[in-house]
Write a structure and sequence with these properties.
- The complex is a heterodimer.
- Chain A is of the alpha+beta class.
- Chain A contains 14 helices and 31 strands.
- In chain A, strands 4-7-2-1-13-16-15 form a 7-stranded mixed β-sheet, with helices on one face. Chain A has a 5-stranded mixed β-sheet with strand order 18-19-20-22-21. In chain A, strands 5-6-3-10 form a 4-stranded antiparallel β-sheet, with no helix packed on it.
- In chain A, a hairpin with an 8-residue loop joins strand 25 and strand 26.
- Chain A is globular, with a radius of gyration of 28 Å.
- The termini of chain A are far apart.
- Chain B is mainly alpha-helical.
- Chain B is built from 12 helices and no strands.
- The radius of gyration of chain B is 23 Å and the shape is globular.
- The chains are: A alpha+beta, B mainly alpha.
- At the A-B interface, helix 9, strand 31 and helix 14 of A face helix 2, helix 3, helix 4, helix 5 and helix 8 of B.
């Protein structure tokens, strides 16, 4: 049975037949690669057999004599791969290895390259790692020329491990086909000369590839439901073999992932901007960005949810989270340009993952608020990774950090503050007990604080961080805190324009941190180089404190005059201009500032009332500050808060003690 | 004896020995006060001259705890945890010590006398301590069984779905709650029996209590549940009293004595368990011709 999906699909099919050049004409990106893959899943042996036709266009001024491929399933081959070494070895017990084997690689209508393939280890020289292969071409590819390869491969899926594999009848098929690296010409990102950027598969980082066209057909048992990157073009059943073939097509993406299981409950809804975006919301964003309503136009998007049947009660919440992402990221940064987004609720895994037009968000046993923040985070990756194609290996903060920052802002807007995930006998009790809620900023800052004096700059190869914890904090929480601080420093409208310009200018490109720095300077009209030097490329930290306040009445004068001396100090190497707020007993507020450059400063005032309190950074704009408790000084200790806490604590302890 | 009769008898015993409530209140309050003073010293050291304290007066900000953790790390948290654990242990030991006195008073049906009370404390401390250790081991076993139960259940049913997971988790929690309640019930009757019979045989007392609960499940568990139903409102009040508006020092001070009265009630509610269940034990012992041991206890009291 073949289902037609309308004129658009027919047009697409016609375009496909015309090859890369025509596809490029309709694309938003400047497509460099074209993948046509026919894959068949054997659910018994857990093997995907594939036929791939790959076309690569040399977009550089160099003559290229070699191609480099990611063969990332080989990371699961044994305990000796770089991934396994970084990850601490195969899981004990039921480890089922996975691998990819190229059976044949041939230039279309030309030489067989299979024997010319060799494994290389550009990152660590680990000869046991087979996640990158290189092949020297018999005929070099000249600038502007293309080369087409026919590849036959077998991908043996591992038992589900981290992000890929099978678990029972569930298949998560990611990093499963031979995929080209990125040929960076001189001047691209940090490249001094033209060269392949094709890293090995690492425990924490795995994404960097060129944009192009993916036309993938997947054959599975007929009772399996399939979800994948891109738009489903057709579904063809072979009743004799009890197999079904799904065909997906997508332009302007840099990866292709798919999943299959007979247990998925597939639900589809349409994101309709006119229904979802209110006039007030549109007006607010228009004011923030200074744009017309036309420039903020969003597109309808087909939302596909692949749900575990037992989670059907959460369907509305999943869709609402997706709609929030489509709406707010679309308004803030730019419309989501693809026709579809697929959200997978996986039965195993934990966490979430991002692939072009396809995200996963693990939901079992997770505090429900976390599921929503997870969906918002993974969907934010459609922008920061999916469309703004930064190099996750070398600058992971540009996708994970930006996604964390974006999701945090959106979560606060759409859902407010969060309960503590406190459960007693599986029952969430934080709300019932009236425990205070926490903001996203506060949770991010908590992670940041643990590592703020530590060793790594934000920009670093993902596998070269001091340890896993340093990687995670430096890639998720620290960038989120840093971007929030930048927003507070520059102002929300400026930051909103920066983020929008970042997306609009660099979508379907491979920008670097330096590009972001230039853009920040350009949009804000200020030189923020110091900020990047200290906190992005450097490891500087800061802590400003009010060291002391003295207040002396000037003798015998009428009206009363008080001489107030305020001492402020700076700890750490970083410098940040700070505001100061002094409140007098009569309620008068005196504001001042300090450029923060010296190690300390003594400020002197003569006022008509004694001082009540002094605060630096009173609105807590500098979230990078290492300690908020010393940011203020009150001359008289307030009794009430301490009496209240003492009373509450005593009561709880009396309740808890036998 | 019916549950209502046991409750009535329990109240009578408790009223006769009401100063015991104050002794238990003091035993709870002193370590709580030590911990509170220590915690407040840290809070004052960090926030006494910070505007953050006033800002947090309305709603506590967990951010402060994270700031403290970041600043002091294990230097602060480890000693604090050790001190807390130590004080919990001391409080537990004090409770077991005082329990012997309370049970002696309830069993003798005499008004509170410090001589009788503390003589009972001393006489029964070690046997009650051994009983507590045995009960603690059982509680630990119940707690440990919570962890693998869902995995075992899912493994048996072969269904790794969310529904199965939720079912087995709920089953685990219900089972743990039930088992915990049973251990508490057995502990109470064992303690009562040890004092009533002036016995040192802890295991025998536990087995006899299990036998008692097995033979009379309705009355023993029913009374236990009834006592819990009476204690729960006090516990709920204490757990939720912080939600009362404390927007000024006056209101904090006004709420304080009410809360302390509730803590006294909590001590009384716990003693009511022993008084009521003691009455039930004596009644069941008479029914089954279990020697109540009153004569032997009488020697001690005289």
């Amino acid at each position: 049975m073949r289902k037609s999906r309308g004129i658009r699909a027919i047009l697409r099919a016609a375009l496909l037949g015309c090859g890369l050049s025509l596809a490029a004409g309709a694309a938003m990106s400047h497509p460099v690669v074209d993948y046509r893959i026919r894959a068949e899943l054997d659910t018994a042996s857990k093997i995907v057999s594939g036929q791939e036709t790959l076309t690569w266009r040399n977009d550089s001024p160099d003559t290229v004599t070699e191609l480099r491929f990611h063969l990332y399933l080989n990371a699961f081959r044994n305990g000796k791969s770089t991934f396994m070494r970084e990850w601490g070895g195969p899981p004990p017990g039921d480890f089922v290895p996975g691998a990819i084997e190229i059976q044949r690689m041939q230039v279309a209508g030309g030489a067989d390259l299979t024997r010319a393939l060799r494994f290389i280890q550009p990152d660590d020289g680990n000869v046991d790692d087979r996640t990158v292969a290189a092949v020297t071409l018999p005929d070099p590819v000249r600038p502007g020329q293309s080369i087409t390869l026919d590849i036959a491969f077998l991908s043996k899926l591992p038992k589900y491990l981290l992000r890929t594999g099978f678990s029972g009848d569930y298949f998560m098929v990611a990093q499963w086909f031979p995929k080209l690296g990125v040929y960076e010409k001189a001047g691209d990102r940090y490249a001094a000369t033209g060269a392949w950027n094709c890293h090995q598969f690492h425990a924490a980082t795995e994404f960097y590839a060129d944009y192009g066209v993916y036309d993938v057909s997947v054959t599975v048992p007929s009772n399996y439901v399939v979800g994948a990157t891109g738009v489903e073009q057709s579904e063809t059943a072979d009743s004799a073999k009890r197999r079904k073939t799904y065909r997906f097509y997508q332009e302007d993406v840099h990866d292709f992932c798919w999943t299959a299981s007979p247990r998925f409950m597939r639900v589809e809804r349409l994101f309709e901007p006119a229904r979802v975006v209110s006039g007030a919301e549109l007006q607010a964003v228009r004011q923030l960005l200074g744009l017309s309503a036309g420039e903020l136009g969003l597109k309808p998007v087909r939302m596909v949810l692949l749900m575990q049947p037992e989670h059907r009660g959460r369907i509305d919440r999943h869709f609402r989270a997706l709609e929030n992402g489509l709406k707010w990221y679309g308004l803030w940064y730019g419309a989501y340009p693809y026709e579809t987004i697929t959200l997978l609720d996986p039965p195993v895994g934990g966490g979430g993952m991002e692939y072009p037009t396809f995200i996963t968000a693990y939901a079992r046993g997770v505090n429900e608020q976390q599921v929503e923040s997870r969906i918002l985070h993974e969907f934010a990756h459609q922008y920061w990774y999916g469309m703004v194609g930064t190099n996750e290996f070398e600058e992971a903060w540009l996708d994970e950090g930006f996604a964390t920052y974006s999701a945090g802002k959106l979560y606060g807007l759409a859902y407010g503050e969060r309960d503590l995930g406190l459960n007693v006998l599986s029952l969430p009790v934080a709300g019932f007990l009236g425990l205070p809620k926490v903001s996203w900023d506060a949770t991010m800052r908590a992670d940041y604080l643990e590592f703020f004096r530590k060793r790594d700059p934000l920009v670093r190869n993902g596998w070269e961080y001091y340890d896993d914890e340093s990687y995670h904090v430096s890639v998720y929480a620290r960038p989120a805190v840093l971007l929030r601080t930048m927003e507070n420093h520059l102002g929300a409208p400026v930051m909103a324009r920066i983020m929008r310009a970042w997306f609009q200018r660099y979508r379907f490109h491979h920008p670097s941190t330096l590009d972001f720095e230039k853009l920040v300077n350009e949009v804000s009209g200020r030189d923020m180089g110091w900020f990047f030097d200290e906190f992005v490329f450097g490891t500087n930290w800061l802590n400003y404190r009010v060291d002391g306040v003295e207040c002396q009445r000037e003798g015998g004068r009428r009206p009363e005059r008080y001489h107030i001396t305020v001492k402020l100090t700076r700890e750490g190497e970083a410098v940040f201009p700070v505001e100061m707020k002094m409140t007098l007993d009569n309620g008068e507020i005196v504001r001042g500032g300090w450029n923060g450059r010296d190690r300390w400063v003594k400020l002197e005032y003569t006022e008509t009332s004694p001082v009540k309190s002094v605060e630096i950074d009173p609105e807590r704009k500098i979230l990078l500050d290492g300690d908020f408790t010393d940011n203020s000084y009150v001359t008289r200790v307030p009794v009430m808060p301490f009496a209240k806490w003492a009373s509450n604590l005593l009561c709880w302890l009396q309740l808890a003690l036998p | 004896m019916t549950i209502a009769h046991a409750l009535r008898e329990g109240f009578r015993k408790l009223f006769r020995a009401w100063p015991a409530c104050l002794v238990f209140y003091a035993a709870t309050t002193i370590p709580a006060l030590v911990m509170t003073v220590a915690a407040m010293a840290v809070a004052l050291g960090s926030l006494a001259h910070s505007t953050w304290a006033s800002q947090m007066a309305r709603s506590f900000d967990f951010g402060w705890l994270w700031e403290m953790q970041a600043r002091y790390g294990v230097l602060l948290s480890t000693p604090a945890l050790i001190v807390m654990a130590g004080l919990f242990c001391i409080s537990g030991i004090a409770y077991v010590f005082l329990l012997g006195g309370a049970l002696t008073l309830f069993h003798a049906r005499e008004p509170f006398s410090s001589v009788v009370f503390f003589a009972g404390c001393g006489r029964h401390f070690w046997r009650l301590a051994r009983l507590t250790l045995c009960a603690g081991a059982l509680v630990a076993a119940v707690a440990a069984s919570r962890i693998p139960l869902p995995f075992i259940g899912i493994g048996k049913s072969g269904e790794p779905s969310e529904g199965a997971w939720l079912f087995w988790r709920a089953f685990r929690d219900a089972a743990a709650l039930g088992m915990g309640g049973l251990v508490s019930l057995v502990f109470d009757y064992s303690a009562i029996r040890l004092v009533a019979e002036d016995s040192r045989h802890v295991v025998r007392a536990m087995l006899a209590s299990c036998n008692l609960v097995w033979r009379c499940p309705g009355r023993t568990t029913g009374l236990h549940l009834a006592l819990w139903a009476m204690a729960l409102p006090v516990i709920a009040f204490l757990a939720l009293s912080h939600r009362a508006p404390q927007t000024s020092l006056l209101m904090v001070l006004a709420l304080f004595p009410i809360r302390q009265a509730a803590v006294v009630c909590k001590a009384g509610a716990r003693l009511l368990f022993y008084a009521g269940q003691g009455a039930m034990y004596e009644s069941l012992a008479r029914e089954k011709e279990i020697p109540p041991g009153r004569a032997r206890l009488g020697v001690l009291i005289r």
